[in-house]
Amino acid sequence: MTMIPAQVCMLSMLLLVLLHVEGGRPGKINAVQTDGALLVFPRPPYEERAMMARWLVHETYWGVLSTLDQDTGEPVGGVVSHSDGLRSSPSGRLFFYITPMDELTQNVLVHPRCSYTISEQQRHGPGADNPVMGDGAGQPCGGLDPEDPACARASLLGRLEPVAAEDLQEAQTAMFSRHPRMADWPTDHHFEFFELRVEEVHLLDWYGGMAIISGEDYYAAAVADAV
Predict the structure, then answer these.
(1) Which of 85, 118, 155, 194 could form a disulfide with 91 if both were Cys (CB 3.0 to 4.6 A apart)?
(2) Residue 23 has pLDDT above 70, yes or no
């Protein structure tokens, strides 16, 4: 059967969409194919601050790690990737895969205390679960500016430390399942798994000021079941 140009075009677009979703790329993190099922974790009510922090950690893939320079003590930040477990199993444990060639890694090995900032702005897809949409449905944060308080963001404070031997398998599974290309990164860069042990979370997800969440409350909270 000979396909007309319009049919070829539509088929190509469909294949691109399917590849984009199945690959689990940033920009489709609210609908990632896992074991044949599309998982969507509902956005918590803004009053559920600890749950919101856990949801943000699971729904995002990367953030800004802020450290203190090992020599001068000046603040130095950079973008890194994270994972808190399989797409289907949010744990709240913040794992990283970083190299000692990176100045951020060098800094935390001397000054482990740091902060890690993430934003709902990177979460693409249907905006219906954001309380303020306007005409921006389908855009990040429903079309809100990244600085708008209704576009949730969190800074997680604590100590970034190498993962203990007994947790290496969990860390590897968490990182490589959400960032599969990491498995092929060069071995001579000596990437290692780290974990941010969260002691406090500064969260802004609505108007009226930031909430401070203890590490205990953060870990005790749970992400709502996927639908």
Answers:
(1) 85
(2) no
